[in-house]
Amino acid sequence: MIQVEQCPVCAGERLAVVFTAKDHVVTQEEFHILECDGCGLRLTSPVPHEDETDRYYESENYTPHAASRGGNFAYRIVRRLMLVRKQNLITTETALRCGRLLDVGCGTGEFLITMHQAGWEVDGIDASEAARQEASRRYTVTVQSPEDWFASGDGEYDVVTFWHALEHLPDPHHYLRRVTSSMRDDGILMIGLPNWNSLDAEYYGPEWAAYDVPRHITHFTRDAMERLLVQHGLTISSTFGLPFDAFYISMLSEKHGHGSAMKGLWTGIKSNWAAVNDSTRWSSIIYVVRKFRTSETTG
Known about the structure:
Order of helices and strands: EEEHHHEHEHEHEHEHEHEHHEH
Oligomer: single chain
CATH class: Alpha Beta
Number of domains: 1
Shape: globular
CATH architecture: 3-Layer(aba) Sandwich
Number of strands: 11
Mean pLDDT: 88
Strand content: 15-25%
Low-confidence stretches: 65-71, 295-299
CATH topology: Rossmann fold
Number of helices: 12
Largest sheet: 7 strands, mixed
Strand order of the largest sheet: 6-5-4-7-8-11-10
Radius of gyration: 18 Å
């Protein structure tokens, strides 16, 4: 395990322990949640070494894997609705009916095949060999490993997406540098992330399911996300809340604490109501990101 001693967003070293959270899904191990005094990013510590990572993912209990094999009915229903919403958002934000798209952390390929069927040319990247193989088996789409992607030449993508993937990365700068060079100048980057500034995160504290330690390493707010992106010549052009996430995450958090699904639904309602009045408080946020225009970078 690696102890985290520096913030990957602002390089600050003043990291205070907020509380201890448990890996409820796979190992039952406990990890600290740290908060950076400089930018408000929260971090999981310690984080697994690269050769330890697989044991926290390759489990039937890990939701994306279990759902792709036919389990967790509620998750699959919400995922289907979200696939449609993501497709519609991309169409609206790009004004394109087709183009070239890269999905980083594509898992078993559900979003890739949705966009491919809509007429897009798609590429995917995922660190899990099992997920890559399943994507190929189920959808006959080719998914690269991160190592192969970094070794390949730059693409020219109209859209790059990180759907609940950036929080899994110990060094988001490494990926954002590569992604920025792969985007067309008028392309967009879309990032979906849990938001620890939400009411449901505040309510559940260390039991908040979206901390998902140690798989989730970085825990963002909008302010921390802005500070990260500006270092790569990127700016947030708009944001969208994900109301379903407040319900799903709250119900999962109740399960961790041996509570009730109805209580989770009520917490989700309260969380979404808070976010209607303050868009920085959605349980999860989609960030639509663009490159700075020349006039913006030169003043």
